[in-house]
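Schema walk-through. Below, the input block comes first and the output block second. Nothing else is stored per chain. Lengths vary across the set, and this one has 113 residues.
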Amino acid sequence: MATDSIKTQRFDAARYLKDEGDMAQLLQAAMDDGDAAVLAAALGAIVRAKGVASVAQDAGLQRESLYKALRANAQPRLDTVVRVLGAVGLGFKIVPLKKKRTGTRTHARQAMA
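--- output ---
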């Protein structure tokens, strides 16, 4: 019996974000989740997909500040989120909710874990 080991690597959503449509879908799922940490993690994946140094420059942030704002369990300031979104070519769109949120989490939390 062979005892070959299986090599794995940590999941990184950034590898699967091919265009702004993919990025928008991930961000929408994170927004639907309602947790700032999930939003920060999704935004972090988008930033990594676009390139941290170029996003930081386009957002007018220091690279270290960007890493800090998007680290695990971060709760980034709204102005930081807006600047980063603009730098990656995305933005917020406000729409009426169809029904009141019940507090249930979406699949975004699981995808970003």
